[in-house]
């Protein structure tokens, strides 16, 4: 008898499968988010998801959405797993009334997965500063946007910074620079650029892979202790960052010569190492801290009403702000699309046009309450990355604060653009894509 | 009442040796295949194809492969993820190096290459048994994934080490790449899995399958009655790896479309397929399908019920889902240690006597 009950229960469960209720009284802008609040990368996924979601909630409360149309923000948990990302994408892309307008995968694996699929479905993917670097070529990747800068921009900016500190790019000759990277598509992205740059400037590049999830790095850091590279860069994510910074501290590696990618530069990454992390550097394209008007609005319209995604005192952390800036550019793109096409009911294709015409200048940032939060971004049909500028921020362990220690550098365009051209053309050839023309 | 075979007489050897000897079984399987081939393709959409049906089919095929090795021949393997990677990378190299090669041939060749690799890693099984063999195959898992991550030739020197499946056609229909329609991809996977399941069913009923089972049950006794362990074990490794390799090729080409070795073929992949085999039922073809359906559908169903039905926060739902899945697995293993296939068998016997069990 037990068995029959069981089969009945299973049958009921199977019938209750995805029955999306289509009750739509007013048009809403559906923005799905593939988040990871569980799994090995959750410590980084949670603040980003909170910032991303809170900004939309704030827009809904403060402005009644975008141009008066409410945002329907839906989350889907991926645990940073590509297979679950596929399920999430298929599950959410048709959500009524507008269907998923834009995806922010926040995972290199899922981004690679979505590039062909979303292009086919005509849904833009906004892989903000991650994913496939050569997607910067809008002629080959019409639906993929990776503003405001790519990993290759960043790698070349780090070399520029190092050159400046060493007293000129010609001083790089004979120096030894190490790259500690997550042994995955994400971590391998900068290698080709760094190899080109090492040929150009004559420094020696030392590659050290760390396997997922990155808790075991003793051997890597022993090697660094033995070889003593002049500078070390890191492409890490999740627990790998914390472990690397702790290990670096334990071999007394000078922190001000240790630079992390912008995904390796949040409070989560440096706090476990305590005072030892003082002086650690990382890339950044927006400010840290909660002293902007948009933050006040989020506190007032979201947290005071008890709708916040996370803890109130964690507003303004680096990754929270990164989620916010992603939401800001996304909502501005949707706004641009609505104005361009003069519609209150934009489709995902129109949102793509909005991204391509995105122009968030300093004046607009001030209107949004984010004056000086990031730099102006303008996207064109050929260039889906925009300015490609990166600054360096440094951790102050006493004050527990990140602050900028450099201006926004522009990347070594000569090297990076040639690589983007080469890689995107390869992709076009492999997949029988004829690059479109831009005029 | 439903499964009474009274009155069904077998009048020839052929009838006695049929796969499904009872009319009801024939009817059920026939109707199931008819719906799967004739009805589902008309209603399938992206979600059902990508998230559910192709997902289940690919894992069912991998489960079949591991079941041959572990369930029928008794050799525990934790290298499934690695062997799937061999299939995927072999198909990638074949389809990109020889664009005009027929896709079906490419898939079969990748299976063949995986079979060769499987035999090499199966050699230690002649000397070591049980847990020790599991550890040896674990080495295969780590070595193969490391190899595909390290050596540029395997991923055509792409800067990230990702492999992307190029668009390929079968009988004029696109089966890979983003433009392939969900119905075509589903039908392609279904056809491959059906043919392979039928083949597996016949192999395990025949001489080879019986020698595997003899080795599984007691290898010394099997040797005494004239079964050569070398031949039996290595054929099991070869056939199993062939299946797993084809599953890997479908997994990469038809289902995901792109893959990176460290994530798509990691150790969890091996455990996932092992769970499928254990929950479905060791030594059962049907079990591979039931296990795959269970392992794929239960998490998605739980998630859908909790998030869409009950309004849970996604993070909380995920935690609850993991706990529930774990307890369900333990529950099923306690209720029926021989897996879901055995449950189905018990159900059939009950149906036969129902409603008058005594």
What's the topology here?
The complex is a heterodimer of chains A (439) and B (358).
Chain A: H1 2-15, E1 29-35, H2 42-63, E2 71-77, H3 82-92, H4 108-121, E3 125-126, E4 144-145, H5 151-166, E5 176-182, H6 185-188, H7 191-201, E6 204-210, H8 218-227, E7 231-235, H9 239-250, E8 258-260, H10 267-270, E9 281-284, H11 293-303, H12 318-340, H13 348-356, E10 359-360, H14 362-367, E11 377-378, E12 389-396, E13 401-404, E14 409-410, H15 413-430
Parallel strand pairs in A: 1-2, 3-4, 5-6, 5-7, 7-8, 8-9
Antiparallel strand pairs in A: 9-12, 10-11, 12-13, 12-14
Chain B: H1 13-16, H2 23-43, H3 46-72, H4 80-97, H5 103-122, H6 131-150, E1 163-164, E2 169-170, E3 173-174, H7 182-205, H8 207-217, H9 219-224, H10 229-256, E4 258-259, H11 261-264, H12 267-280, H13 285-309, H14 314-335, H15 340-353
Antiparallel strand pairs in B: 1-4, 2-3
